[in-house]
Amino acid sequence: MIHTTSNKKGELVSELPAWQALKEHVNEIEKTHLRDLLHDEARCMSMIKECEGMYCDFTRQRVTQKTLELLFELAEQSNLRGKINAMFNGEHINSTEDRAVLHVATRAHRNQKIMVDGRDVVPDVWEVLDKIKAFSDKVRNGEWLGVTGKPLKNVVAIGIGGSFLGPLFVHTALRTEPVAMRCSRDRRLRFLANVDPIDVARALDGLDPEETLVVVISKTFTTAETMLNARTVRSWLTSRLGPEAVAKHMVAVSTNLKLVKEFGIDPENAFGFWDWVGGRYSVCSAVGMLPLSLQYGFDLMQEFLAGANNIDEHFKNQPYQDNLPVLMGLLSLWNVSFLGHGAKAILPYCQALSKLAPHIQQVDMESNGKGVDINGVRLPFETGEIDFGEPGTNGQHSFYQLIHQGRVVPCEFIGIVRSQQSVYLKGEVVSNHDELMCNFFAQADALAYGKTPEQLRSDNVPDYLIPHRVFTGNRPSMSIMLPSCTAYTVGQLLAIYEHRIAVQGFIWNINSFDQWGVELGKVLASKVRTVMNSARTRDRKILPQDGFNYSTTRMINKYLEGKTQVLYPEGHDSFPIDMLRGVQ
Ligand SMILES: O=P(O)(O)OC[C@H]1O[C@](O)(CO)[C@@H](O)[C@@H]1O
């Protein structure tokens, strides 16, 4: 299916004149060094953007004004604006699944109008948000009690991928924010994602089922890991509190209310969303809003939605040269497709943002790690980036060696002006947060400038050490400063990253909103599951060698030979002993 917003039929972005011009322009850029580019004040002034309360410095990218002009031209020739509009207008830009892509509707103001297939979906969004507010208020104020009459002060959110990473990112970001701390006093929010029973044991460790509410989050309600974890935790609840506990202790977030009901959760206690919200883009829907409102209260989480909405409007309306997601997307594209840097590091100098990189890893890599364009034509270039990251300064003592002297990895530094927590020890040179930020400022310049042999010689470094101590510099980075790390700014940050990923996908002309690449492994796991059951229950109808290669057969057999703790007992559920510890 050729979509109206795609490039001309059969035309790859790499065939556009602007792409060719950028290819040629690489030679010019190869002759420059950031050391010199950073001395050009006019250039620097044009590459620092202050908008929506954020300070963004792109001066340490290996670009000149001409590079930016060529990138804007590429955006024009790729119909970037048309594709952004198509997304906001609810066109089915996820063509392989024939769906609209409207996570922006999940954070729309009540009075906005966003149409999907001829229908304004904003009232639907707010119907669910109002239900979340009512329910979370009831749980938080003790009106909704557990089956034994106790208040539910613990929440375990079961979900994986997009039904986990976004909510975890936001929860981690808010845990130590003073307002959020006040709003969540005496409450606990835990996540259970991995099907590994160790994760179950850790998620439930120390929790009293009488005081625990479980939120099962799955867009499809078929994801194997989530459903096994949901059955496991349901069993944990009912084995202690009886079958009637499910009604009071389990709720669901899903687009598949039929399966929610079949699982045994009353659809009244289910919070819906829609197929036009992709899993990895779903944190602003009930997927994130329900567990986070239970923890922090709906009013605070509304600020998170407002922050994301602020960037949606910015993305939709600002011209390319002042549009943060567009600038970030274009610069990443330049680094990946023209300078050949396949990875990027996301480096927040803020412990609260420690789960930003894992979240963006999914959003970016599941969105843009594609091999064909939107028309199914195999691409002659690679798309997507390998994302990784850790908060500063921890990363400095881990992988920064490689990014300073090994491979070139474009870095994204994120700093905060006003920390969530302040510590100043009398007599120290700077406060603890200032100390952190000293590193934030220093690293970007260390990467850009490096250190030359001449500088080392003048520092009296012995000759034999000079090659080891040279820093080539000229390593690109961008720096973003947020005024604070609050629900609002976390919403902004999330939306900036979501949209810059879309920008890259729109220009590469791929479908950033499907994820067929995750299917094959799931199918093979299911085949192994059949073999595993047959071997463990000793019915031996199917043997490990049936349908597997030599290597896999041998590995499965080796595994089956080993000692396992659980022997598939008949008739009763079995838990690791520690899972029950909290309720002895
Ligand atoms: O919310 P669901 O349907 O359980 O899916 C969980 C995750 O699984 C995937 O489909 C594949 O990993 C993700 O896109 C999604 O976020």
From TrEMBL:
GO biological process, one term: glucose 6-phosphate metabolic process
Catalytic activity as recorded in UniProt: alpha-D-glucose 6-phosphate = beta-D-fructose 6-phosphate
Coiled coil found in the keyword field: no
UniProt superkingdom: Eukaryota
Major enzyme class: isomerase
EC number: 5.3.1.9
Keyword list, A-Z: Cytoplasm, Gluconeogenesis, Glycolysis, Isomerase
Pathway it works in: Carbohydrate degradation; glycolysis; D-glyceraldehyde 3-phosphate and glycerone phosphate from D-glucose: step 2/4
GO CC annotations on file: cytosol
InterPro entries linked to this entry: G6P_Isomerase, G6P_Isomerase_C, Phosphoglucose_isomerase_CS, SIS_dom_sf, SIS_PGI_1, SIS_PGI_2
GO-annotated molecular function: carbohydrate derivative binding; glucose-6-phosphate isomerase activity; monosaccharide binding
NCBIfam families found in the cross-reference section: PRK00179.1
Family: Belongs to the GPI family.
The protein's name in its UniProt record: Glucose-6-phosphate isomerase
